[in-house]
UniProtKB/TrEMBL annotation:
Residues 1-19 form the signal peptide. The keyword Signal applies. Keywords: Signal. This is Uncharacterized protein.
């Protein structure tokens, strides 16, 4: 893993991709940090790449917290952190966590937010991969298709529904003209 890059993934102008966000905990099952817990939040593109914990993870961003979250965020160190439990956010496709490095060995793919290998006898996870099925969830009554991220259109481009019409303001700070055009072309207002 590496220290924070200058631009968060949401600002890179990535089109037609989804990103993962995982929080890995060193010493707790059930994703509940204690006072002596170190944890990291790792983000990256959901493209099926296999990442091995405790090795370089090119293309990811990482923030590290210690003392149960009382200290941080800091850039991730090279200290070992093989997670006992993981909070995952990857759209509607759960990430896959493996007992061995290089995405080998026993695997767990849970649909819940917290993934814990303890009930299956795993002391920690060694690697993971996150994929994307090309669909995007509905967010703020907006649904996007053809690989356009609803999250980018709503949160970065500030698009909103006005009745059945999608409105995207001109020149938002966190969005490019091309991204706005993709949002307008590939997103629709969905009634709840």
């Amino acid at each position: 893993m590496r220290l924070f890059t200058i631009f968060p993934l949401g600002l890179l102008g990535l089109h037609g991709v989804s990103t993962f966000d995982i929080t890995i905990y060193n010493n707790v099952a059930g994703c509940n940090a204690k006072d002596d817990t170190m944890y990291r939040i790792v983000t990256g593109v959901s493209d099926g790449t296999c990442y091995t914990f405790d090795e370089e993870m090119p293309g990811t961003d990482c923030a590290q917290y210690s003392r149960g979250g009382w200290e941080g965020p800091d850039g991730c160190t090279k200290d070992s952190l093989l997670p006992k439990s993981v909070i995952q956010r990857n759209g509607n496709v759960p990430c896959i966590f493996y007992s061995q490095k290089n995405c080998e060995g026993a695997l767990i793919q849970e649909t819940g937010t917290c993934v814990d290998g303890t009930p299956l006898g795993l002391d920690s996870f060694s690697s993971f991969s996150c994929s994307w099925d090309g669909t995007v969830d509905i967010l703020g009554n907006v649904g996007c298709h053809d690989g356009v991220s609803t999250n980018v259109c709503i949160n970065d481009c500030n698009c909103v529904c006005n009745g059945q019409r999608l409105f995207c303001p001109e020149n938002p700070l966190r969005c490019t003209e091309m991204t706005i055009a993709n949002c307008v072309k590939n997103c629709n207002c969905i009634n709840p």
